[in-house]
Amino acid sequence: MCLALPARVVSIEADEMAIISLEGVKKKISLALVEDISVGDYVLVHVGYALHKVSEEEAARTLAMMAEAGVLASELDEIKGAPA
Amino acid sequence: MNAIDPNLPEPDNAPEPHSAIDMTHGGGGRAMAELIRTVFHRHLANSHLAQGNDGAVLELPPGRVVMSTDGHVISPLFFPGGDIGSLAVHGTVNDVAMMGARPLYMSAGFILEEGFALTDLERIVQSMARAARDAGIAIVTGDTKVVEQGKGDGIFITTTGVGVIPDGVNVSGNLAREGNAIVVSGTIGDHGLAILSKRENLEFETEIQSDSAALHTLVAAMLEAVPTIGVLRDPTRGGLAATLNEIAQQSKVGMMLDEDAIPIKRDVAAGCELLGLDPLYVANEGKLIAICDAADADRLLQVMRTHPLGQDASIVGTVVEDRNAMVQMRTKFGGARVVDYLAGEQLPRIC
Amino acid sequence: MKYIDEFRQHDLASKVAGAIAKEARPDRTYHLMEFCGGHTHAIFRYGVQDLMPANVHFVHGPGCPVCVLPVRRLDDAVELAERHGVILCTYGDMMRVPGTKQRSLIRAKADGADVRMIYSTQDALRIARENPDREVVFFAIGFETTTPPTAVALVQARRERLANFSVFCNHVLTPAAIQHILQSPEVRDMGTVRIDGFLGPSHVSSIIGSAPYEFFAEEFQKPVVIAGFEPLDVMQSTLMLIRQINEGRNEVENEYTRVVKREGNTKAQDLVSDTFELRSSFEWRGLGNVPYSALRIRAEYADLDAEKRFTLSDKASREVKSCECPAILRGVKKPTDCKLFGTVCTPDTPMGSCMVSSEGACAAYWTYGRFRTNTGGQGATEDIVA
C-alpha cells in the first residue's frame, strides 16, 4: 500500500504548502506533516503531503550496501570455483 | 387603433446575437441554417459543402475502399496540444490509415448541448478545419443536432472517414506471425498524461502536450519502404498494452517486449509515477504500432526516423509462439512480467 | 528520477540476486511475508521472483486497506452518497470495489450520486469550501501512512470552521494486523501458513518508525526487515531476512533508512493522536474482529465525524457466497483455490476486494501470474501465497 515518491522541493508557498517537482512535473503539496524543509530538499510524497525528508547520506549508504552484496558473492564464487 | 409601423426601428429591444446553442439551432429552421452557414461552412469551406446538399458525391481512385467511424466525447474539450476537434480529425485519419489506406474524405456529425457556448463551437470547428487542411483531407458532409441541457456533455462529435488501399498492401490484426518485429513510432503516454493534468482534482503543472497528430503520411512512407507490413494499429484508449493484447488475440500469438526499448519521455514517466499509473496503459493519439518481418525492421526504422512523427521510433519486441496469446515483458530490472488487458480505465491510486 | 531510478538498477539487482542465491541454504525453504500490498505490486511489476531462488517464497499479507475494508463500511459509504445526498470524496482505489449486491461507488456515480475522486484530503477541503450549501464527506481509508493527511484535514476544517465537512473514518493499524496474523491458529499452532520472517511496510514505517515492530520480533521470534518500496529494496531486504534466519536472529532491521528512523515522524504521530483514538474492535474483511486495530475520530472532533452527523442504516452486509477473499487474505488459500476465480470473478467482473484492488492477491495473480512461462530466471516461483 501507500504509494509514495521522493520528489524535490522547488518552492515553499503560503499555508504550509510547497511545490515539488519530479522530472519537471510539478505539484502543490502540503508540508503540514514535516519540519525544516528547504528548497532543494527531497521529500517523500503521499496523497498530496510530504511525509518525511529523504536522507541523501542514507540513500548512498543503502546503495553501497547493495553493491557490496554483489562483491561478496563474486568473492565466494572465486573461492568455490563456481560459475557466476 | 394605432397601427405599428413595421419599418420603425425598435430601440433597446433589438435581439441580442446568439451566444450559446439553444433548441432552435437543432430545429431545422432558419436558426439552424444560419449556424451551419456561419460556423460550419465558413471554416470547413470546400466544394462539396458549398453545394449545400444532404450528401456528398465522392470520386474515388480505383482500389479497395475503407470506411471507419469514431465518436469523440473527450473531456476537457481543450487540452495542451489539441482539442476535441483536432482530435476527431486526427483520430479518423489514423483509423483509415491503420487499414493501410490513404484517407480521402471525412464526414462530421455534431451533437450539441443546449447552452454550449458558440465561441467554443467556433474554436473547435476552426481547429478541425486546420487539422483537415494540414492532413490534406476534406470534411465533405455533416450533421448537427441539439439536445436539451443535461443530456449531452457540451459537444459530441462523430467522424467517419473514407480511404482507398493501394495494391499490394494487406494489413490486418490477425497477420502477426512468430518472429515478427514489433515497432512503435515514438514515445508513449503523452496524450493520456496531458489530459489528466487538466482533470479536476488531479491538476499538476507540466509541459506535457498531447501527441495528437495525423499519421497517414508516416504510414504511406512506411508502406512504400516495406509493403509487406502485416499489422498497423494506433494505441489509443488503453494504451500500448490494450492494443498489443488485441493483436495477440486476433493473431493467436504471444509477444515478448523489452521495457528498455520502449520510448517514454522523462516527464511522462514521472507523471505516471506520481499518480500510480502504468504508462503501458495510458492513451496515445499520435503514435502507431507496426508488426513486420524481422528482416525488414531495421530498414523500416530508418524510414520512420526520417519522418517528423517517427523520430523516436523503436523496435520494442518480438512476436512469439504462445497458444495463450499472452503479452509479456522483460523489465528493466531483469525479471519478466505479464502485460495484461486492464479491466476498465486505469484510475490513479494511493496504494 | 533521483532516489527512484537508482533503486531499480539492473546490474545491482544481479549482484543482490547472486548474494541471495549463495546465502539461501539449499536444505530449507524460506517463507517471507510481505505485509504491504505495494510490495506485492512491486514484486510482480518488476518480476522480482525471477531473480529469486526456488526455495524463497513470498507470502502475501493483508496490507491492502482496500482489500480489508469490511463490506458493511463500503455499503455505508455508498449509502452516504446515494441516500444522504452528500458530495462523497474518495481516493481512486475505492471506486470499483464491489459492496453488497455488487454496488460500488462507481455504480452509484453512474446512477447519479455525487461521488468525486480526489488525490489529496486538501482537495476534499477545497470542495467543501467551494460548495458551502452541500455536505461534503471524505471517505477515509488506509494504514498509518494515509492517516496523518486525514488528521491535517480535521485540524484545518476545525480552524476554518468548515461546517459542511466531515470524515467517514476507516483507518486501520499495521502492528495490530501483524499481531493478529501471528497469533492466528493457522500460523501459531497448525503451521498451515508458514511465516519465517516479515518484510515490513515502507511508508507506514516512515510514520510509525521501526520501534513498534520490536515487540513482534521478540514475542513471536520472527525477524523483521523494514523494506523500501523499490525492487532493489525488496531484494536487499530479502537478503537481510535470509541472513537473520540463517543466523537464528530475530531482530528488527531497517533497510529503508533513507526515510525510516526508529522513532518515525513524531509530528505526524502527534497530529494523529490529537485527532483520533483507538476503536476497541474493528471487523476486517477476512480477518474478522481484530481488537485495537482501527481508529475513530476523537470526541473533541465529534462534530466532524460523519458517523455522528449522519444516521446510517443497520445493514446485513453480505459477501458473495463462495468468495474466498477472507481465506486468501490470511494466506490460507490461493486465488486458484477459489471456485469463482477466473470464472465468475475476473478483473472485469470482480466479486470481492482481492480482485478489484490492483494489489489484491487475486488481481496480482490474474494480471501477472496466470500462464506464467518460466522466463529462465534462477527459479521462478509461481506461488504468491505459501
- Summarize the biggest pleated sheet of chain A: 5 strands, antiparallel
pLDDT averaged over residues of chain A: 88
Task: Please give the CATH class of the largest domain in chain A.
Answer: Mainly Beta
- Give the ordered list of helices and strands of chain B: HHEEEHEHEEEHHEHEHEHEEE
**The CATH topology of the largest domain in chain A:** SH3 type barrels
Integer-rounded radius of gyration of chain B:
23 Å
Write the layout of secondary structure elements.
The complex is a heterotrimer of chains A (84), B (351) and C (386).
Chain A: E1 5-12, E2 17-22, E3 25-30, E4 42-46, E5 49-53, H1 56-80
Antiparallel strand pairs in A: 1-2, 1-4, 2-3, 4-5
Chain B: H1 30-44, H2 47-50, E1 64-72, E2 78-79, E3 82-83, H3 84-97, E4 102-113, H4 118-135, E5 138-147, E6 155-165, E7 181-184, H5 190-196, H6 216-225, E8 231-233, H7 239-251, E9 254-258, H8 266-275, E10 289-292, H9 294-305, E11 314-320, E12 327-330, E13 336-338
Helix pairs in contact in B: 1-4, 3-4, 6-9
Chain C: H1 10-23, E1 30-36, H2 37-45, E2 56-63, H3 65-68, H4 71-83, E3 87-91, H5 105-110, E4 115-118, H6 121-130, E5 136-142, H7 147-160, E6 165-171, H8 174-183, H9 185-188, E7 197-200, H10 202-208, H11 214-220, E8 224-226, H12 231-247, E9 252-254, H13 266-275, E10 276-284, E11 288-297, H14 306-309, H15 325-329, H16 353-356, H17 361-369
Parallel strand pairs in C: 1-2, 1-7, 3-4, 3-5, 5-6, 7-8, 8-9
Antiparallel strand pairs in C: 10-11
